[in-house]
Design a protein that fits this description.
The complex is a heterodimer of chains A (about 120) and B (about 120). Chain A is mostly beta strands. Chain A has no helices and eleven strands. In chain B, the strands form three sheets. In chain B, strands 2, 5, 6, 10, 11 and 12 form a six-stranded mixed beta sheet that branches. In chain B, strands 3-9-8-7 form a four-stranded antiparallel beta sheet, with no helix packed on it. In chain B, strands 1-4 form a two-stranded antiparallel sheet. Classes of the chains: A mainly beta (about 120), B mainly beta (about 120).
């Protein structure tokens, strides 16, 4: 049973560029959430996707956008990269909130983004 | 808004000893979940233990147990018989309930406590 998988593992981008990170949820899960974790800090919720729609959003600017595909996989896009966007981006999957088993969240190993 | 505070940035413990990590939170909600996650150097966030706020009994998972004090909004993690593999960053996290057994699926994390287990 495959867990949550993310790609790429590491990447380096230049200020002003755009980046796309990818996530495949754990088998059977239909909800994907994205978190940003700066070095030495706790993860911060970016947004959550279910049925190909953004369902919740944290306090992040519109430069952060996402998408969910019919197979439940998801992408996180960040435009106009800033140095402060350098962080570990974690993908988390679960069943959609509202289902009895929806309170177990599984994380991927993350994508390290460095903006120079 | 909910907040989670971990006041111990770093802790160390000798192998086989017991250590307690502290966590406090602030919320006006009555129904919620609390979690402890472990993040080793590999960076993958691993669920250690979960507590439902409506349950008075403290959760336990093998060597890991919690002391949940709802009135005090405190949620500490006790690790017994510490092992070298327990070395990691530990995060306390909160999740709001939306009714029944469901939840919002949004975790609010504390700042983390780095735990080093020494041989």
């Amino acid at each position: 049973d495959a867990g949550v998988t993310q790609s790429p593992t590491h990447l380096i981008k230049t200020r002003g560029q755009q980046v796309t990170l990818r996530c495949s949820p754990k088998s059977g899960h239909d909800t994907v959430s994205w978190y940003q974790q700066a070095l030495g800090q706790g993860p911060q919720f970016i947004f959550q996707y279910y049925e190909e729609e953004e369902r919740q959003r944290g306090n992040f600017p519109d430069r952060f956008s996402g998408h969910q595909f019919p197979n439940y996989s998801s992408e996180l896009n960040v435009n106009a990269l800033l140095l402060g966007d350098s962080a570990l981006y974690l993908c988390a999957s679960s069943f959609f909130p509202g289902q009895s088993s929806g309170n177990t969240i599984y994380f991927g190993e993350g994508s390290w983004l460095t903006v120079v | 808004a909910q907040t989670v505070t971990q006041s111990q940035p770093e802790m160390s413990v000798q192998e086989a000893e017991t250590v307690t990590l502290s966590c406090t939170y602030d919320t006006s909600e009555n129904n919620y979940y609390l979690f402890w996650y472990k993040q080793p150097p590999s960076r993958q966030m691993i669920l250690v233990i979960r507590q439902e706020a409506y349950k008075q009994q403290n959760a336990t998972e093998n060597r890991f147990s919690v002391n949940f004090q709802k009135a005090a909004k405190s949620f500490s993690l006790k690790i017994s018989d510490s092992q070298l593999g327990d070395t990691a960053m530990y995060f306390c996290a909160f999740m709001k309930h939306v009714g029944g057994s469901s939840n919002t699926g949004k975790l609010i994390f504390g700042q983390g406590t780095t735990l080093q287990v020494k041989p």
